[in-house]
Amino acid sequence: MKYKIEKNTVQETLILPLYSRKLCTELYPNLYRDETAVHLLDQIDYDFSEAEKNSRSLMQRFGALEVAMRQNDLAFEVRAYLKNHPCAAVVNLGCGLDNTGRACDNGRCKIYNLDFPDVIALRQQLLPAGEREQNIPCDLKEPAWFDKIDASGGAVFFASGVFYYFLTRQVKTLVQGMADAFPGGVLVFDAANRTAVKMIAKTWLRTAKIKDVGAYFAVSDAERELSPWDNRLQVSSRGYMLGYNNLKDPSVSGFFRFLARVGDNGMKMQIVKIGFGDRQ
């Protein structure tokens, strides 16, 4: 029995990133594979005709490559942390239907997937929690969820495409709270500069009727801009298209490599890594 998703619902916003991850898996199999996305889309009843039509366009294909690189980079950082903290909590902030936590599972870590209650309700049906895994309904901006994470073996948090929708002061409050609650932990997420965030925001701000785009979280030089938030933070960043992978793969055209350089250097598309405190 297929799970029906209607147009213009919150659930639809979860399906489209899933479709992007399936497209990446088909277009760039040497660079990225998300078997969960392929498997889940088979279980979903939704009209994908528009997404399929768009998937032939150049920018849609580049967008899929962006999604692939971002997920790969975050997974790289999660696995790197688990090498030194094998029993850590692996926490997916704003998880949607993403399965990166399970993809990084080393057999000993604890996996937590956090999102709004209606998202977690859908996730429970399509991706019920496995062993050592919890799907937690919450609002990331409210620190009540901190208590639900067992960080006794360390903690690595990651957020994919999430903080663009936060005001700068909300990200700052969250990071300071996490530094208090999770010393020795690490947070990794994608970010971009003001120009890029305005482009990202254009589509959803129209529906949200929000005027002040400038208040939204954007960053050009992560180390310089975010370190002053709290003296316990160890901040670093890498370009997210080319910072972890040179994209010298036959499936990636020279033009896409050029666009990747523009993204990393011009738009400051980056993976930001913040270490908390001195237990690292």
UniProtKB/TrEMBL annotation:
Organism per entry: Faecalibacterium hattorii
MF-aspect GO terms: methyltransferase activity
Record carries keyword DNA damage: no
Listed name of the protein: Methyltransferase
Biological processes annotated in GO: methylation
Pfam family, one: LCM
Matching InterPro entries: Ppm1/Ppm2/Tcmp (IPR007213), SAM-dependent_MTases_sf (IPR029063)
Gene3D superfamilies: Vaccinia Virus protein VP39
Keyword annotations from UniProtKB, A to Z: Methyltransferase, Transferase
